[in-house]
Amino acid sequence: MVSTGEPLSPHEAAHGQANRVFEIDEVSRRTVVKCMGRTFSAVAVDGEVVIADVTDITRPVRLGAARERFADGRWRIIGRHDQDLLTTGSLLSAVVALWQDR
User: Fold this and answer.
1) Which end of the chain has fewer CB atoms < 10 Å from its terminal CB, N or C?
2) Exposed (0-12), middle (13-18) or buried (19+): which is 55, by Cβ within 10 Å?
């Protein structure tokens, strides 16, 4: 969910929705985000962040990973076929780029 600067509504608070933008650097263990009506998982493992579509929990689809963090906080976003897609620090931007590349 994109940050609007507004406080959480009771519905958002009850459903654990955050009113902020996640940075890739904030991912520890497993982070789940909802975007475009889908559910995505980001998992930090061995210096990279693996991003998957977990909307269908019986068939998670690995979309790619964030690798090689730069000094300015941006990461290389790598698609499923090891192609560079972009550099960004935003988890949402990475998710959208990987979803479009699937």
Assistant:
1) C
2) middle
The Cα 22–Cα 39 span in angstroms is 14
Split at pLDDT 50, 70, 90, the class of 38 is very high
55: alpha, beta or left? (left if phi > 0; alpha if psi -120 to 50): alpha
Measuring CA to CA, which residue among 23, 19, 3 is closest to residue 11?
Answer: 19
Per-residue pLDDT band at 16 (split at 50, 70, 90): low
Question: Hey, where are the domains in the chain?
Answer: 22-101
Residue 7 in tokens? 């406080």
**Using CA atoms, how far apart are residues 99 and 52, in angstroms rounded to an integer?**
9
Angle at 68 between CA 98 and CA 28, to 5 degrees: 75
Quote the tokens at residue 84: 């560079």
